[in-house]
């Protein structure tokens, strides 16, 4: 690595950008939609207000942030890719750039573990995690006393946000659509797409009975994907904390976080200062998941269905976030931000 980092704990660039998302203070709003694919982020962003012109940043690590307003409410859309490690980068680095509360909705794809059609939408009230047990002997399984996979306890969504998403989905769903919307279910987030989701490949994964075990052990289990548990977990762990950290000189670095930026006007904000009103900030998290695959029928969604479903669910999540109350004293200061309304 050619760059010198002087703070391995939480590196920032000389212009105060975080290391992976390449964001700095004033470029990400309190209300956030997170998605996996940049194409989904762009599809949602078409509904943002024309003024101020949405800010668009793409980091060299592949994260993309679009920040603007929807019906005058500041909202960010962040594309993070796949898996809990990328979700972890997203939550932790955004939290360091933001004062006040975070309200985050994950709009992603999933597989259905029950008999519902592809194109259905679920709103999970809770999640479990499935992880491959590296202490299990996958080569000589008969000699191992360990389980091949671990299944966690449940962690819950913010139920007020869950309800707001469900209501917005019902109100926004096309009138001629018959696809179901299922609230109040349980989702499983796996640490891989293949082994920890019970898919059979050439590797000796010893996962033949994993799906049956999941269904029998977890009531209301409906879907399977890779990110939502970690979002709910980090939101739960935050538990009301101050949104400031000790100010230290930013470490010098350049290339790995040099972002591509399209913006109406640059942010002039520095690292968030402590605010008394932010001393008990919260992270509220919930999700809407589009069923792309059925693990019972083996059906897979068509490209046309994907585009149609992403369109109306993306608009519904924008509506839910725009209508979700955050007290003004728990919002990030708009002055100098990319969403500030200028004359």
User: Terminal Cα separation, in Å?
Assistant: 44 Å
What Rg do the Cα atoms give? 21 Å
Strand content: 15-25%
Largest sheet: 5 strands, mixed, barrel
Number of strands: 12
Explain this structure:
This protein is α/β, with parallel strands linked by helices. The protein has 6 helices and 12 strands. Helix 2 packs parallel to helix 5 and helix 3 crosses helix 6. The N terminus is likely disordered.
How would you describe this structure in keywords?
343 residues; alpha/beta; five-stranded mixed beta barrel; 22% helix; globular
Describe how the helices and strands are arranged.
Elements: E1 31-35, H1 38-45, E2 55-58, E3 64-70, E4 73-79, H2 84-97, E5 102-112, E6 121-132, E7 149-151, E8 155-156, H3 159-172, E9 181-190, H4 210-217, E10 221-225, H5 228-238, E11 260-262, E12 283-294, H6 303-322
Parallel strand pairs: 1-4, 1-5, 5-12, 6-9, 9-10
Antiparallel strand pairs: 2-3, 2-11, 3-4, 5-10, 6-7, 6-8, 6-12
């Amino acid at each position: 690595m050619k760059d010198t980092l002087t703070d391995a704990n939480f590196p920032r660039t000389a212009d105060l950008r975080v290391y992976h998302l390449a964001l700095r203070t004033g470029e990400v709003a309190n209300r956030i939609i997170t998605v996996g694919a940049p194409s989904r982020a762009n599809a949602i962003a078409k509904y943002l207000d024309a003024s101020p012109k949405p800010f668009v940043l793409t980091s060299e690590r592949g994260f993309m942030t679009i920040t603007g307003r929807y019906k005058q409410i500041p909202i960010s859309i962040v594309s993070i890719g796949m898996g809990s490690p990328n979700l972890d980068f997203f939550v932790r680095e955004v939290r360091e750039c933001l004062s006040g509360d975070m309200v985050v909705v994950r709009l992603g794809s999933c597989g259905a573990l029950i008999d519902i059609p592809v194109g259905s939408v679920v709103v999970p009230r809770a999640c479990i995690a499935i992880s491959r047990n590296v202490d299990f002997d996958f080569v000589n399984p008969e000699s191992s006393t360990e389980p091949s996979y671990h299944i966690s306890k449940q962690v819950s969504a913010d139920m007020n946000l869950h309800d707001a998403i469900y209501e917005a989905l019902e109100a926004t769903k096309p009138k001629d659509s018959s696809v179901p919307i299922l609230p109040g279910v349980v989702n499983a987030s796996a640490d891989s797409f293949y082994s920890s989701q019970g898919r059979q490949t050439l590797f000796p994964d010893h996962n033949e009975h994993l799906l049956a075990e999941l269904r029998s052990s977890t009531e209301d289990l409906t879907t399977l994907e890779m990110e939502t548990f970690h979002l709910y977990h980090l939101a739960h762990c935050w538990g009301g904390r101050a949104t400031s950290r000790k100010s230290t000189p930013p470490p010098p670095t350049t290339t790995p976080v040099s972002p591509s930026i399209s913006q109406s006007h640059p942010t002039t904000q520095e690292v968030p200062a402590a605010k008394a009103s932010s001393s008990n900030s919260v992270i509220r998290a919930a999700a809407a998941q589009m069923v792309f695959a059925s693990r019972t029928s083996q059906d897979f969604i068509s490209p046309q269905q994907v585009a149609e479903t992403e369109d109306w669910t993306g608009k519904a999540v924008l509506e839910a976030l725009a209508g979700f109350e955050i007290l003004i004293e728990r919002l990030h200061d708009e002055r100098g931000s990319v969403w500030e309304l200028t004359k």
